[in-house]
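call fold(seq) -> tokens
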Amino acid sequence: MSDSQLIVRQWLMLKMLASHGPGVTIAELATEFHVSVKTVRRDLDVLRLAGFPLEETTGPFNRKSWRLEPTAARFDLAFRYDEALALSIAQRFLEPLAGTYFGDAVQRAFRKIRASVGRNVLRYLDKMSGAMHQTTRGVSDYSRKAEIIDDLLVGIEDQTEVLITYQSMQATEPVTYGIHPYGLTYHRGSLYLVGFAPHHGELRHWKVDRIARAERGESSFERPEDFDLQQHFAPSFGIYHGDQQIKVRIRFAPSVARFVTESTWHPSQQLTPQPDGALLAEFELSSTVEIKSWALSFGAAAEVLEPAELREQIAEEIRLLFSTYNSNTSVDHQERWPKDSDGRRKQERKRKQNKASTR
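ret:
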């Protein structure tokens, strides 16, 4: 679960404990925040360790409840100008998540920041934040996926099964089945869910855009203690994950060598300049699906040296491209552009008529 959602829930929990004088039971908190009793107890333990004076009391009929002094739940958050500016600029990079739980929480947080600064500072923040822009080509819209994302996050936090209705790229119809969600990753403008698929007996990735429905189940699961999202994706050149160890070597022409060296494309990359100005790039990957597209994006300026299978795949892709474009060029121009051809024929007839009338 994201730190932001956890903090928001615990903050709202503190406000509830402070506003209900006699106290609130753990069961009531679990119902209010749609989480398990186990999660509520964990939150209360974290808040007590953080120093909040939470008190457990026993009332009539041995009813145990928790309360917090109202004054203890008040915070005065002060930001320096550079901190407020940095957060204001960062808001633009979270715009693709607008409409989701993340996006709404961020908007509320920024409204509080803007309300706490003076008019002159506010004008300055607007001016400087406008100096940063993020392109949104290919970015997914999750404004209609808020409930789905929320159910996935609860499943991740509580380690409970989630039933999803999913339609993969190859499937003709959506399928509903249960999964064990482990975490979410944001890749090239889209969210992907990582988890265990019991019916396949393996770890899998699901693009959130293709999840039509999500519903929290009742059965629980134990996520491996050594599972880590960052380590899981370390051998991937993006989102595709394999179980192999593949060495990839690509030679880049001098015309693009500097561009390639300006970025970190993968943790394992080794970039070696060549005497002729070219660049040799080497990677250790678990899949070649995405690096194939990346290499093709450089056109003739990139040559895959190994593995041989990837080199042949790219060669086949180039042959198909040549066949596609070569066949198009042989199509009769009149059939491809009938309107333009008709227009030129009409102009030609009119020109001949005008020429004849002047004779």
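The first helix runs from residue 3 to 19.
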